[in-house]
From TrEMBL:
It comes from Strigamia maritima (European centipede). Pfam families: Galaxin_repeat (PF24748). This is Galaxin-like repeats domain-containing protein. Residues 1-17 form the signal peptide. InterPro entries: Galaxin-like (IPR055284), Galaxin_dom (IPR056601). It comes from the Eukaryota. Residues 56-166, 175-283, 350-480 form the Galaxin-like repeats domain. The keyword Signal applies. The keyword Iron-sulfur does not apply. Keywords: Signal.
Length: 495
């Protein structure tokens, strides 16, 4: 890899504020050494002499592919009929590997039917790997677990029940059409129902009310915290529940769990009372709901304790933080600007509670500024300054650096919270100002001579004896594929 590519890659990964589609910023590459890719090999931060096709990296080490194996970063001597399991080799004729653990197999067992269950070997023809343990099959057609039991789901069900606050699982064989579980028992879904934990006969439309079934055409299932579920007979099609009582939704209302007469059907609940929607609106005043008389028949909302017509009015707040009803000039004026109705889609801006012409002016904080005024400009979003005399550092929200104004000078530029002269050889390195010589460049917040050093991620390392390539601790270099592997590594981390 060339020095140019190495510098480009390093700067890509460690650049401040570089984002990717995952959360956070790009992870940093770390290098502790430099090397010559033509004569040396980098294995995760460790430099090894020699480059040939037989030797490859194994973690931070190198191994001879013709005589050795690399097992999870550990170099071990190769053996015929052996494979890696974690950091060691195992004999495939006498053992199997379960979660990087070598498990010896008893004589006589068929390797073709062996599998792993939580780090142990088991015979899949005679056993099942269940959540709690390896269980012997009670019958050869058993394919599922039920606690510490096995069963065939085509012939039995695994039912759960609560016995003395203990969760118990039981295998129950089918009994005709009884194939579904209900608290440790089987029932027939065609003629029975499971209500809570009780099996009951299927009634009418088939609904549960507590532990009983009922017909929704003739009864209501009501609930009250003090009584629980209660079946109440319907007196009409318009009945509904108000706690454990019924009421007619056309002639009555249920307000705050109380039934109130609503003979004309115009009433609407407002707290514990009923308001006539033709004459009043329900408003929140002094922390409680109450009915407020309408000023006009079209009023449908509130502005404090006063009724409001949303089509013609808006509710604004004055300097004393009191609600004020304001008349709209046009239907599009649906917002407030101070105590005036305001159309955000029109040719005006709201600036400091005052409407201004967006064509000729802009808003800096809460202050109006004319585009034609060349002596005033906005720094960030709220600071005014004279661009002929001063300069603005717009800040960095992500780093918590606020915008600020400073006296301008030739070449003056911002660097974090500092000011530097870009025309006098100074340069900003990640928020720090340095006086730079011709060969010096930035490596994050450090400066270095690129003819003598190389920037490796977050560190500056010396170049020695033609060694100018970074040996990163998180990347294995396989010789001439270095460029591809490093780029693939970065791209994978960016996914």
């Amino acid at each position: 890899m060339s020095l140019t590519l190495a510098l480009l890659l390093s700067s890509l990964v460690v650049s401040e504020g570089f984002r990717y589609k995952g959360a956070g910023t790009v992870p940093q590459l770390v290098a502790t050494a430099v090397y010559n890719s033509d004569s040396e090999r980098c294995c995760k931060g460790t430099v090894h002499p020699g480059v040939n096709s037989i030797k490859e990296c194994c973690g931070a080490n190198v191994h001879d592919k013709s005589t050795q194996e690399c097992c999870d970063g550990q170099v071990v001597e190769a053996k015929l009929g052996h494979l890696c399991c974690g950091k060691a080799l195992y004999d495939t004729k006498t053992s199997i590997c379960c979660r990087n653990k070598i498990v010896n197999v008893e004589k006589g067992l068929d390797f073709e039917h062996l599998s792993c269950c939580r780090g142990s070997a088991y015979d899949t023809t005679k056993q099942l790997c269940c959540p709690q343990a390896t269980i012997d099959k009670k019958h050869e057609d058993h394919t599922h677990c039920c606690g510490n039991h096995t069963y065939n789901p085509k012939k039995s069900s695994c039912c759960s029940s609560n016995v003395n606050n203990v969760h118990v699982l039981t295998v129950l064989p089918f009994e005709g059409n009884k194939t579904t579980c209900c608290e440790g028992k089987l029932y027939d879904r065609g003629s029975e129902m499971c209500c809570l934990t009780k099996i009951v006969k299927y009634e009418g439309t088939g609904a549960c009310c507590g532990d009983a079934s009922y017909d929704t055409k003739s009864h209501l299932c009501c609930f009250a915290p003090s009584h629980g579920f209660k079946l109440v007979a319907k007196s009409g099609a318009n009945d509904s529940c108000c706690l454990d009582k019924t009421y007619n939704t056309h002639t009555q209302a249920c307000c705050n769990e109380k039934v109130i007469e609503n003979a004309n059907g115009r009433g609407q609940c407002c707290g514990t009372t009923l308001v006539d929607t033709e004459k009043q609106v329900c408003c929140l005043a002094a922390g409680s709901l109450k009915g407020v008389d309408k000023k006009t028949v079209n009023d449908s909302g509130c502005c404090g304790e006063v009724s409001l017509d949303f089509k013609k009015q808006v509710c604004c707040r004055n300097k004393d933080q009191k609600d004020v009803v304001v008349e709209k000039g046009t239907p599009k004026e649906r917002m407030c600007c101070g105590v005036e109705a305001f159309d955000p889609s029109g040719g005006k801006l709201c600036c400091g509670g005052k409407k201004i012409d967006r064509i000729t002016h802009y808003c800096c904080g809460s202050k109006e500024v004319a585009y034609a005024n060349v002596d005033v400009a906005c720094c960030g979003s709220e600071l005014l300054f004279n661009p002929k005399k001063d300069a603005c550092c717009s800040g960095d929200v992500l780093k918590g650096v606020k915008p600020r104004v400073f006296a301008a000078g030739a070449g003056s530029m911002c660097c974090g919270e500092a000011i530097f002269n870009g025309s006098s050889g100074e340069q900003c390195c990640d928020g720090k100002v340095y006086k730079m010589d011709p060969n010096e460049v930035c490596c994050r917040d450090k400066k270095y001579d690129q003819t003598k050093f190389v920037c490796c991620g977050r560190d500056v390392l010396p170049i020695t004896a033609n060694r100018s390539q970074c040996c990163f601790t998180t990347i294995t270099d396989e010789g001439k594929d270095c460029k591809k592997k490093m780029l693939n590594y970065v791209l994978k981390r960016l996914e």
